[in-house]
Design a protein that fits this description.
Blueprint lengths: L2 H10 L13 H17 L7 H17 L12 E5 L1 H14 L3 E2 L5 E3 L4 E3 L4 E3 L23 E3 L8 E3 L5 E3 L2 E3 L12 E5 L12 E3 L2 E3 L3 E5 L3 E3 L13 E3 L2 E3 L4 E5 L3 E3 L9 E4 L2 E3 L3 H6 L1 E5 L2 E6 L10 E5 L3 E2 L2 E2 L2 E6 L9 E5 L7
Parallel strand pairs: 1-3, 2-5, 3-6, 4-7, 5-8, 6-9, 7-10, 8-11, 9-12, 10-13, 11-15, 12-16, 13-17, 14-18, 15-19, 16-20, 17-21, 19-22, 21-23, 22-26, 23-27
Antiparallel strand pairs: 24-25
């Protein structure tokens, strides 16, 4: 048995109670992950001495002991200013590999400058959701901004591109500008789209998130023309977009099937439930052009309960069009509030060459 194998055997044989200095608190585990992560980052790729291999093994093992992954354990700063893109991607990759939740606390705000990609099933969890009027201000005054979670500074990116076959994003605060007076011109806070027209996506659960000043809040764009039904090149069958708070979208708070078309019979972005989402348009741009829920291609069940889109240019829009000479098809089954105090229409069905 090699020295490396002996080392790994000793590592895998460690129990929580045998960890020196461990007193049952998660901060010790997080500190150890940071320690081994920094050691492995400082190691050269050439030669791979035994201490580097040990550090990498321990870095990968410690989240299993903790039972979850945190961004801070992978070198993130979390002050809302430093660029935490790389360390967040490392944390996502580690959580996917270990099959563990990625957990966000309420003490850190992570600034990103490039898209975070989710390529394997994952469970991402924040701590709670804010309402539409006060957001993080208990007195109802002051700027509306995420005090923790994710922020980007109006970079017009997809903040999270979820291309995995399935997953859950729950209870996260996502701020697409960091500035209440600015609206982005492109991108989505969460984009549920597979990597290409050959891959499936289904069963995503997006619930109780708070999304501020997005272009599009939660989007299922699709990848263009498809040849098969039901989630190939788009997302379908079992996706649930539930009880999210989305404030001042410049595009759409929820956008379904905008870039997808299926040349088989019927739509491809099917079987999606959109229910009980708090949507409000407060900024000048969101009031003049923002849409609460937009369906371009696919079939959704919409339940507005008493929380339909409020104050947007259009409350709910159904507008199938034409992509690459192919007609989009849309099926809308709805109940509850479709729009409230909308600038143009609370509910608008406007085919643009497509099929209803």
């Amino acid at each position: 048995m090699s020295a490396h194998a002996k080392t790994l055997r000793l590592i895998l044989g460690v129990t929580l109670y045998a960890l020196p200095g461990w007193a049952g608190d998660s901060s010790y585990i997080t500190g150890k992950i940071q320690q081994f992560h920094q050691q492995s980052e400082n190691c050269s790729d050439q030669g791979q001495p035994e201490d580097c291999i040990t550090a990498r093994n321990m870095r990968n093992l410690m989240p299993l002991i903790a039972g979850y992954v945190t961004p801070m354990a992978y070198g993130c700063v979390g002050d809302g200013v430093a660029d935490d893109t790389r360390c967040l991607q490392n944390a996502i990759d580690a959580a996917q590999m270990a099959g563990l939740p990625l957990r966000f606390d309420t003490a850190h705000l992570f600034n990103i400058t490039h898209t975070l990609t989710i390529s394997a099933p994952i469970y991402i969890e924040g701590q709670y959701r804010y309402g539409i009027w006060v957001v993080n201000q208990s007195t109802g005054k002051g700027p509306e901004a995420c005090p923790w979670g994710l922020v980007t500074r109006n970079t017009d990116i997809d903040m999270i591109r979820a291309s995995a076959v399935t997953g859950t994003i729950r209870g996260l605060c996502i701020d697409m500008t960091g500035n209440q007076s600015i609206n982005p011109t492109a991108g989505a806070a969460i984009n549920l789209t597979p990597p290409d027209s050959l891959h499936y996506s289904s069963g995503w659960h997006i619930e109780q998130n708070t999304i501020l000043q997005p272009f599009d809040g939660i989007a299922a764009y699709g990848t263009g023309p498809g040849k098969l039904c039901c989630g190939v090149g788009t997302t379908a069958d079992g996706d649930a977009i539930l009880r999210n708070t989305i404030v001042s979208p410049a595009g759409s708070a929820i956008s379904i099937g905008k870039d997808h078309v299926n040349n088989a019979a019927g739509p491809g972005t099917v079987g999606i439930t959109v229910s009980d989402n708090d949507i409000v348009c407060k900024t000048k741009i969101s009031k003049s052009q923002g849409i609460g829920v937009a369906l371009y291609e696919g079939a959704i069940w919409y339940d507005g309960t008493q929380n339909g889109p409020e104050g947007c240019h259009i409350g709910t829009l159904v507008a199938p069009g034409v992509i690459s000479g192919q007609q989009q098809a849309a099926q809308f089954d709805g109940d509850g509030v479709l729009g409230d105090q909308s600038g143009l229409y609370d509910f608008l069905v406007r085919p643009e060459g497509g099929l209803i």
